[in-house]
TrEMBL record:
It comes from the Bacteria. It comes from Comamonas jiangduensis. Pfam families: BolA. This is BolA family protein. Gene3D superfamilies: BolA-like. Belongs to the BolA/IbaG family. The lineage of its organism: Bacteria, Pseudomonadati, Pseudomonadota, Betaproteobacteria, Burkholderiales. Transmembrane segments: none annotated.
Length: 80
């Protein structure tokens, strides 16, 4: 697994306005901005991202994924 592949897997399952993934091949860090997070709490947002990984997270293909999740409005205030 590499960062580009992981990013494309997440992007295929979740409509993202911004997505950045980095890591060492085992431990990953993602920043995800999606309108699908509107009205959802942190845990629900993380579940949406984990759902894009399917069995990859269960089989240890993706060992660890830390993430920051934002709605587009939240991201706009971060970027300002």
């Amino acid at each position: 697994m590499n960062a580009d592949l992981l990013q494309s897997i997440i992007a295929a399952g979740l409509q993202c306005e911004h997505l950045a993934v980095e890591g060492d091949g085992r431990h990953w860090y993602a920043t995800v901005v999606s309108a699908e997070f509107e009205g959802k709490r942190l845990l629900a947002r993380q579940r949406l991202v984990y759902a894009t990984l399917g069995e990859r997270i269960k089989t240890d293909e993706v060992h660890a994924l830390s993430m920051k999740t934002f709605t587009p409005a939240e991201w706009a205030t971060k970027a300002a």
